[in-house]
């Protein structure tokens, strides 16, 4: 299997056969060395380097890489066949576990990606309300497809990609997040035309920003008053900020939610969950949701093993301990080098950037020097800390004292070199 040409050689070959040399555009701006293997909190590169991993595959490896329980469950399940085109025992167990462990959901539909789970959520909400318009928020990410991907181009919010059909976004109001007054005023104008409000209940994708106290309650209340379906996109926050995700953390229950990433130990699977009166619209076929690979044997084994582990041996206390120590250590090192670094968010997922600001939404986040941080992140990867350029650090249950020590030592060295450099 080994090509033995090193990262440079692999990259040259990758560029010939894959656009940009990658298979997800998110990776275009990410770390570049090629990886050969991973275990626990570590990645091992083809060039013989190791990396303490705080990207966790963009979040899924919440139990660390290749957790024994998940690898063994998936391998054992595979022996009995990969995909049946029929129902099986594991999918029943997995659905029951999702509801039991998360607490509030009543029914589940599995899919293979978060993008798909979001699409199913929007369709269910539109079918239930007979309405098409939705509210979504600046900086929140809900997948890459036409009807939900947005970006800011030349000061205007709209399509984020060439080739994206702007008409598909038309039933979509793109609002600043965390502003209860503004949302209330918007609802007064068109609340009765809305099918759904969709949000990351913690805006992790852009800055790891928590909801202001009372904000989620206001959204919940507005949705109740106008008959609008509230969708929490918990693809990142679900099972990461606690077993019950953000819904439990803030005590606000949505009507529908999407899960992915942390609930399957690195395996590609996602889910739409929610109240049974909404979800059961999918039971007749009048509201369609399908997928050849939905609830595959491997996916269901991964979900079952991961959720059993999260329930019976919860990593949350150790994630919190590591995350808090790491955040404090990073701040101390920055202060020592006289560098103004901002480290904010939650221990399980925090955000780092240069500068300082009162950050509550997408706009205020832009006051930080995000571009400069992206250059630091590249230098950190060179020095053995694996990170995305957009500021997020993810902590897993596999991060312990040794990783803390190595990460802080490597961070100190990088900032030392950085401080000497004239940019
Ligand atoms: N929703 C959120 C909140 C996400 O963070 C992501 C992926 N980062 C998605 C949806 C889409 O998930 P996927 O990449 O599995 O399609």
Proportion in β-strands: 15-25%
Overall spatial form: globular
Report the mean per-residue pLDDT as an integer.
96
The second-level CATH architecture of the largest domain is 3-Layer(aba) Sandwich
Give me the count of strands.
16
List the uncertain runs. Answer: none
Secondary-structure element series: HEEEHHEHEEEEHEHEHEEHHHEEHHEEH
| Tally of separate domains | 2
Family: Belongs to the class-III pyridoxal-phosphate-dependent aminotransferase family.
EC number: 5.4.3.8
Cofactor: pyridoxal 5'-phosphate
Enzyme class: isomerase
Question: Could you please describe the fold and organization of this structure?
Answer:
This protein has 423 residues and is α/β, with parallel strands linked by helices. The protein has 13 helices and 16 strands. The strands form four sheets. It has a seven-stranded mixed sheet, sandwiched between helices. It has a four-stranded mixed sheet with strand order 1-2-3-15. Helix 6 links the parallel strand 9 and strand 10. It is globular and about 60 Å long. The two termini are 41 Å apart. The structure holds 4'-deoxy-4'-aminopyridoxal-5'-phosphate. The site of 4'-deoxy-4'-aminopyridoxal-5'-phosphate (PMP) has 15 residues, from helix 4. It is an enzyme of class 5 (isomerase). Its EC number is 5.4.3.8. InterPro entries: Aminotrans_3, Aminotrans_3_PPA_site, PyrdxlP-dep_Trfase, PyrdxlP-dep_Trfase_major, PyrdxlP-dep_Trfase_small. Its cofactor is pyridoxal 5'-phosphate.
